[in-house]
Amino acid sequence: MIPAVQRSTGRPIGIALLGSTGSIGESTLRVLKRHPEEFRLVALVTGSNATALAAQVAEWAPEFVGVVNGSETHRWPSGPECLIAAATHPDVEIVVNAVVGAAGLDATLAALRAGKRVALANKESLVMAGPLVAAAAKAGGGELVPIDSEHSAVLQCVAAQACAPSRLILTASGGPFRTWETERIARATIAETLNHPTWRMGSKITVDSATLANKALELIEAHFLFGLPYDALEAVVHPQSIVHAFVEFPDGSMLAQVGYPSMEVPILYALTHPARLVDAGVERFDPVAAGSLTFEPVRRDVFRAFTLGIAAGRAGGTAPAVFNAANEIAVAAFLEGRIAFGGIADLIDRMLMVHDVQPASSVEVVRAADADVRRLALESIT
Ligand code: NDP
Ligand code: MG
After folding, report:
1. 197-244, pLDDT tens digit by residue?
2. Nearest by Cα to 358 from 327, 311, 316
3. What residues have their beta carbon closer than 5 A to ion ligand 2?
């Protein structure tokens, strides 16, 4: 269970935003813009989009700026170290980790070791190294608060409870292929895959939503965040994306958190938890306008990436890192037109089959498994 913390008052809280040019990064900036008295942007770091970064720097004038894949022509620090410098900056209290993929892991660990709150969008870091992330938080006094909408929903349902939940059900939109036949899905084009019905997000997570790998990543994320066994973690397809999660308590009572799909609500909550701020920028919910809410089972035989991800989560150790690495390589290959949509689950399956699961005893062990799978996966594609 995530402990509540006392929010500091009377002065703006220093924020580092990692992955500022992405979908979550830009949503975070919109949230910060509405609350200048509460938050101060101290550090901005991004991957390679120096043009978008320059515009953000001109607007926000942060103390620290970094671009990981920078070139000589940029005036900012570059290399993966700049993520760590921002994540551990002395004026930063909250690190918003909105980097996509395994590249976010070291910053999550460094920030937690430095005693910061990590507002985590980068679910991949928790999936790869859940026990090590928890150990880093314990060692440094840092705190992990999820941005992912389903996990924010769970946190909001459990935050004021005297008793731990007994079961969680995360909802999934079902993605663009929710009703499609298996053969048609296997041949889906990039454009069809990126056409998500309810959320506008970066391309990697949009593909993960179409394969439902995202929901497996999220169940693993929930396992590590809320400490429940996999038998108590479920996913249900809910095409309207209005209910974000259901939380069951031992007496059979069920709570749910609802709202229109917008990441700005969970982003703000991750910054203020367990407190809340007035936010006039959020569209107020109208249940009549929301209309009918429907729920369906996940088609586990069709969405194999989901089923493989759950199996990896249950296997534990390095298996979730292997699932994540194989998925990242497969998604990139699909987006480059090198494998078919159906090839994503095939590649994940092959990598999980050949990998010898080890206990995730150190970051080095996890990194080695990650690197090994990436090399093997790339070899098997070309
Ligand atoms: P985007 O692809 O839109 O943005 C990714 C960001 O990460 C960009 O700023 C990119 O920089 C940066 N980045 C990429 N590679 C590196 C690297 N090696 N080092 C540092 N920064 C890097 O992704 P999203 O915003 O959609 O997703 C970000 C994370 O949040 C993912 O883990 C995703 O699963 C999670 N998430 C996203 C949701 C959403 O609604 N979008 C919802 C829930 C979770 P640049 O543009 O310069 O390359
Ligand atoms: Mg989510």
Report:
1. 888 899 999 999 999 999 999 999 999 999 999 999 999 999 999 999
2. 316
3. 148-150
**29 and 145 fall within a common domain:** yes
Tell me: cis bond preceding 274? Omega within 30 of 0 counts: yes
Beta strands across the sheet bearing 143-146: 64-67, 39-46, 13-18, 94-97, 117-120, 143-146
Q: What is the pLDDT of residues 267-318, one digit of tens each?
A: 999 999 999 999 999 999 999 999 999 999 999 999 999 999 999 999 999 9
CATH of the domain at 350: 1.10.1740.10
The rounded distance, in Å, linking the Cα atoms of 112 and 115 is 5
- Mean pLDDT calculated for residue range 334-354: 98
Residues with CB under 6 A from ligand 1: 19-25, 46-49, 68, 83, 98-100, 103, 121-124, 148, 199, 201-202, 204-205, 263
**Whose Cα sits closest to atom 40 in ligand 1?**
201
Q: Would you state the pLDDT for residue 197?
A: 85
Q: Which residues contact 287 (CB under 8 A, 6 or more apart)?
A: none
Distance 210 CA to ligand 2 centre (A): 13
Residues 368 and 280 in one domain: no
- Which ligand number lies closest to the CA of residue 194? 1
pLDDT tens per residue, range 51-91: 999 999 999 999 999 999 987 777 899 999 999 999 999 99
Q: Domain span at residue 135?
A: 13-153+261-287
